[in-house]
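Appendix B, Record 12. Input sequence as logged:
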Amino acid sequence: MRSNIGSVAQAKETWELDRLVFEHMVLAEMGSGDPAAADALFQVRAQLNPWSQALLAITLDRLTPGSENARTLLSDLQSAALRSSTGAYWELPETGPQNMVGNLTNTAMVLYALAQQDPGSPLVADTVRFLMSNRQPDGAWESTYATAWTLMALNHVVKGTGELGGDFAYSASLNGAPLASGQAAGADQLTPATASVALDGLYPDDPNALLIQRQTGSGRLYYTAGLQVARPVDSVPPLSQGLGIERVFVSSTADCPAQDCAPIQSARAGQKVTVKLTLTVPHDAYNLVVEDYIPAGAEILNTTLKTSELGIDEGPEAEPLYDPSQPYSEGWGWWLFRDPQIYDDRISWAAGYLPAGTYQLTYTLVLFQPGEYRVLPARAWQFYFPEVQANSPGALFAIEP
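Logged structural output:
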């Protein structure tokens, strides 16, 4: 395995050195570490991003417990910590998609190393506070990679501080009305307490007071408060943050080829409609996802199932619905994407790498249930850098009897 790993001399870019650190950390964790390679990476530590400096410190300490070089790296990281009202964090001087590390993952990986050295330090507590303040409403972080590293880091913090032995009472109230209360002890340490209030229960014009109280006792209280506001989907505006995406519906009738039709906002039940997504990628993109939701009264025609619609004439002259050489050949750039994932309510494509350019993805809807439907926007985002994203406007689509 080690023979397939490059050397410091071969690495030309920061991301290559960072990846080399990761590879040697994995070898060290497996008991096959290379002290000479780790020392060579220490010599170029000034070129490394904070997260790889943290992993190098772990590697050096695994190979030589109590390593002076490992302590030097951790001390440098402690000095480089940035402070904000939400806690401590580290920024990436050199960013890039090759290693899937954004600023939040970067901070989690530094915490992973610091928590193994001194889990009770104030800096560790401040870093935990920063990561918890950047947690998403669904309980995860910005990507699966960020979530994995954050949970591994928090695991070391919890074990090192003895928080699982906590024992304290807590309560929360909103505008004087009780929201939640309980005792954090024993098995309930890992059981979250949740509460919600309808929007009409908040003051629309005056400040709302959320009071969270923790009584005396050992352990820490973590909490997250969020506001979710639903809006009519057809009023959602387009968004373009490093990407662009547009969606149009066009007729798929024989007398109107999809590529020549004008956009439509309605069609009759029983008809087919082609959906065209135009994706603009100003710069090379990695791990890109495109997702589009469909009107509730329609279904996606899944050509990969090699089936035909009910009622279609399947005589010898009929055009086949499935072409194994070009399953989604309408549009441009589709061949750079993996096969689409088709669900009851949406379709999704993924691409490991997309050169800068404009791409068009298409699929076919079969309309069934008459009605007027609100259609969620089409979305595109870089999976490990979700701040690079775009969505089309929301839409109304009518299926007529």
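DSSP finds seven helices and 18 strands in the chain.
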